[in-house]
Batch of 2 targets.
Target 1
Amino acid sequence: MSHILLLNCGSSSIKYQLLDPEVGAPEAVGLVERIGLEVGTITHEVGDNEFRESRPFADHTEGVAAVVKMFQDHGPSLDDVVAVGHRTVHGGSTFVESTLVDAGVIAKLEELSDLAPLHNPPGLAGIRAAQEVLPDVPHVAIFDTAFFSTLPAEAYTYAIDQEVAKRLGIRKYGFHGTSHSYVSKEAAKFLDRPIEETKIIVCHLGNGASISAVDGGVAIETSMGLTPLQGLVMGTRSGDVDPGLHKYLVGAAGMTIDEVDTLLNKKSGMAGLCGHTDMRDVKTAIDEGDEQTQLALDVYVHRLVGYIGSYIAHLGGVDALVFTAGIGENAAHVRGPVIRKLKALGFELDEDANATRAKQAREISTPESKVRVLVIPTNEELAMAQETLAVISK
Ligand code: ADP
């Protein structure tokens, strides 16, 4: 047995799982919430049992200590843990693969915090805290950006002053890489073809959403950019807008640049368009005849269809279009209009298969469809555990 403890640290939270990558299903999952606030909570689930405690967690060190204490009090034992895997949002150009953490890596991650001020500092705090509490096992950083380090220069270069771009590391990095990598591999397995011979488009549609073009297992395009704000319409993020919008809002509307950033990250996307971030609520509102919510879904679908068409062109054809994550796996009312709009490109939707709910990987196109359309559940935790094991086995 080689158990991996996975930590995913946000600014005020720590999500964790204990799992054996050979087995797959987690043996324990948990969440520390409200770190740094007056009262926090930790929830620890082992099988059907849930253990919950409320008390203050001053910082990530106290949060990680509470995680370890939960394992000590309620099991399973952490004695079999061979490594800790840390989800790390931004690897910049420095980290192109999962990496064993040492002092040099920590120093480089500190430098990268400027690129991802919201995401990287909590990740670093989690790494430091976990190293303190679990000093005898290796720690591995897994980067959301790593899978996209293969993007060709013409895909990752922004058409701005290159002196500025190079000096400040401004380029497309891409995010959700662990999911895009895992799901494209699972898709090749589903197609029963070597991944080297496949052209696959992956739509990762969760609260955050991104799409990637994967040619022979190698990512060649993706929709998120320097930050996770670029690209598709998301739960609360705008995705693509005219870059001139910022000046307009700051100048004509008198907003500060921080207010613009909050508007685009927190008050836009589906939330801004119709007030609903959850696609289940979107469906209910549309079924009740709410036209504004219908428009919101239309905008969401329009953007996605545009990216899919563009990625088919970049790939020079496509074998499979794959939907994954919360919306991609569950929302037939999102997948349906997307595939119907792609009819001219040879996509044929199997309406019954699309409407049928299932947890396993499945096909929702008809046998006549020129492109196979798949729904494949993502499993970022399993993928991260596999990565962690691979790094310590090198
Ligand atoms: P993230 O990991 O980015 O927080 P998820 O991949 O868990 O997001 O996706 C969450 C979203 O999935 C929800 O906001 C909701 O829109 C959508 N979702 C989840 N279940 C369903 C469902 N049964 N039907 C439609 N949409 C769903």
Target 2
Amino acid sequence: MTVVAIDGPAGAGKSTIAKRLAKVLGWAYLDSGAMYRAVTVVAMDAGADLGDGEALARLAEALDLELKAEGTVLVRGADVTKRIRSPEVTAAVSGVASVAAVREVMVSHQRRFAERNEYVVAEGRDIGTVVFPDAALKIYLDAASTERARRRLGQSDEVAQGADQDAVRAGIEERDRLDSTREIAPLRPAADAWLLDTSKMTLDEVFEAVRGRVRSAIRP
Ligand code: DC
């Protein structure tokens, strides 16, 4: 198993870069954030108390989740790909992801996924620090929050819902705060991660830089 780990805050370009890299290399793509989002959708549908860690852990354990190669997310066979990106889920997911027992279940899902695939590009917050500490290459993508908000607004859903840049930036900063100050697996670069500040780069430039790094670090 060979893993490229891509971590970083919301809107740093992880998904775009990880997906494109997986496609170009013909590797499997693991979106760990989609897993925490799927638990959040299931908890909301069940009317669960999102502050009740034990209830969330039970739901996570029973979760029948399937991540398709092209990014489709199925829960008990139903397609929730769109719903997991809704503003309600985005606002609630950091809380759900801070529950230790939920993380335990998700991390074992993620490791099983990697066991089934020889080459994996995995993105998230704790991929290089916790999930795959032996990853062949760890990349930490970052960018200024104003720039990340601008990029998020370019992703049509939130524009359609009339969000403004300040509100999006505030949401991103709050999520960063929750993700990086939680006790378990907080968002931070691994000691041996390659840090790339993408604030002044286009996504094409980021992709080329990442691809070059993968080429020199990994020789299949
Ligand atoms: O990358 P994303 O926005 O889809 O992630 C959704 C949330 O899930 C994010 O607020 C933090 C959490 N998350 C996490 O705690 N650990 C991961 N490996 C991936 C995501």
